[in-house]
Every structure is written in C-alpha cells, then in structure tokens.
Known about the structure:
3-stranded antiparallel sheet; CATH 1.10.630.10; globular
Amino acid sequence: LHCKQRGRPSTSCSSRSQRGPDAKIYGPLWKSKYGPLVIVNVANAELIEQVLRQEGRHPVRTDMPHWRAYRELRNQAHGPLTEMGAKWQRIRSILNPRMLKPKHVSSYSNAINMVVTDFIDKVAWLRDTHGQGVMVHDLAGELYKFAFEGICSVLFETRMGCLNEVVPEQTQKFIVSVGEMFRLSQLVILFPKSTWPYLPFWKQFVAAWDYLFKVDDVQEKLQLGQPVEGEYLTHLLLSEQMTVTEILGSITELLLAGVDTTSNTISWTLYHMAKEPEIQEKLYQEVISVCPGEKVPTSDDIANMPYLKAVIRETLRLYPVVPGNARLTVENEIVVGDHLFPKKTLFHLCHYAVSYDEKVFPDPHTFLPERWLRGGEDRSKQHPFGSVPFGFGIRACLGRRVAELEMYLLLSRLIKQYEVKQDPAGTTVKAITRTLMAPATSINLQFLDRQVQ
Length: 453
C-alpha cells in the first residue's frame, strides 16, 4: 500500500492493529493487516465523512471474496450485499422502492404487528413455563426468532413458525446456519483464497451457505412453475426485471440483513431499559399518551413518538450492529486528511470507536436518548458522521426502514405491556463481535405485567 502525505513521508499509516481502542494510541488514521488484507483504519468522524463522500457512483464495501467465492462455487447470483459496480446499481434500483419508500414500508405494519402480538404472547409463555412467572432467559435468542419471523412476513407474506412453542426444524436450522456463516466468515477471510478448499472449516462455511440459499421451499416452487406467496417476492417476480436466480440471491441476502439489526438492537435496548427505570418510565409515558388503552401503535403513531426513536438511536450508537464498515476505492485515488491514497485502497471505518469519542458525544458511555431529540444542545453539536448505523449514501442499508419499523412497533408495545426489570443475579452483559456485534452472554430480564391505562 502506498500512502503519500503531502510534502512529507507518512507516519500515521504504519502497520498497527485495527481494534477500536488503538485510535487513542495511533491517532485517527493507521494501517493494519487482517490475514491477507491490508487495511487503512479511519477512526475520526470528519475523516470518515471524507472517505464516504468520495465513494464514487458505484461504491464497494469490500469485495467480500469469501462470500463471492461461494456464489461462484455454486453458480448462485449475487445480491445487494455482494454484487458490485453497475450490476449492483441495477439490483438496488429494482429492490429499493418497496424497501425504502415510506408509503410501501408503512403498509407492512399490520403484518409486523401480528408478529409482535405473537412475540408478546411468547414472552408470557416463557415466563410461565421457564421463568417462575417473571423471567425471560436468553432474550437475544428469542428476539432473533422474532426478527426472522418478521422479515419473512414482509418478504413472503407467510409465517415460518419461529414463535411457536416448538420451532420447526427447517426454520431452526436456517437460524443456526446464519450464525455459523457469520462466525466462520471472520475465520475464512484470515487465509489466502488459494488455501480455502483445504481449511477444515471451509466445508462448514459452504454448508451453512447452502442451507441459506434454500430459502425454505421457495426455490423448488419457482423451478416447478408453482405460485409463491408474498407481496415483495411476487412483486419481484411479476416485474420480470430480475431473473429467478437473481431474485433468490437477493432474497437470501435480505433475510441475512433483516434479522441481526432488529434482534440485537432491541436486546440491548431492553437491557438498558431494565438498568435505567427512569428512561423506561419516560418512554412508557410517551407510548400511552399516543396510544392509550388497548390501542395498538401503527406506523402513523410512531411519527408522534420522538423519544422512542431517540432510544433506538442511542442504542445503535452504543452498539452499532456493524461495528466497522468498509469502503474499497475502485474508481479514483482519494485524499483523506493530508494523505493521498491510490485506487484499490481498503478503508475500515471504525464506527464503534467514533461512537465513544467524547469530542463527538460528551459523556459517551452514558445511555442518553435526549442527545438525539430535536433542539437538544448535544444534537446541535454532533458531527453527522459520528454515528451512521445504517451506512451512508446509495450503499446504505437496504432494509433500514423495515428494520426501524419492526423495532419501533415491538419496543413500543413491549414497554406498554410489560415493565422490564434487571436479572436479580445482577449479571453484566458485554458486547462481542462475530462479524456483527452481539451480546457476549445471555441477556436475562424480568417482564412484569402492567395495568392497561
């Protein structure tokens, strides 16, 4: 990697570790290696903005060689996460409208609310059968099932049974395969591509992807010419803008992207609600003021709940689902700070580190939703690239609007139904990165019934 600083040799790009805390040691910009990858780490909001604003017409996160290798091995199509260049832009232009336009996304409210109702019932069942009437164990695991059920209800307009007392075997295997794929991804990428077929865990990696691409029995129905259900899936088929193989590739990647954001974020949110009852009470009062009695919140109601949105935003600051994003410069050399970087430079954007930068977020370790409210003093001083949990620009998260709607509807209804309290054991839960950020240990919380007001 050649990195030139204007007028003098570069020192800030020397080889270093890419961990977030290193920003305090090495400054906002340094070079590191991760397996065969050479990476320029960026841990400053202004510099992250400079990288993202020079991303070009067809931005590339990374070339994701291990994910792309699977598709080449099995002759599967790329989707919005793995495709690049003009082909990626074409796929996104077809997928975007019904995923990002508010009028289309709000139409998913009823389907999502039905899943929320089932999850609330599941919480009651878990308390009564496994939690002495109050405890729910492994909340993140249960929310993962909710999120998978929710995104399937949007994509397929059908239910997968994730919230049943006994989860169907195929559904459970899909959920396990997602976890295995993410876990093994960070191992495979450590080795040169030529060695992958000889790695002991390569077969497991391929097997996990094989199951993900089954997408239940959708592929078989399509090959047999049988009708399939689902507003979004049917829309893609009827539009005839994508081949069946491309649709399956995209649907698989949408399922991947649509689960972890919702499940992990709500897990952390409820964890903090239990730790800080004053914030929980403030949120509860907002929800019942907008939706009193037995009124079920809709997407229109969410528009009148700014504190709810601030709570989610603050959770995403402290626990970004993707702790570090990436950009590969494919079109031009770019200037970042006082440095000129050539084409093919891989940047690692250290969002987690910037989220805890006290220059951007005063008192960064405190859970403070007020910092996201309009008119707040902190909000006016914040750098717009201090926390970008859904990415930026045309390569931003395709499922953002659906994920937000799921989180808002679920959290508002859970807080309205239950008072959430800490695990009496007082267990502290820390975060861990398995490609995505997740709780390192189980989150166990008490759910106490509220009286309807």
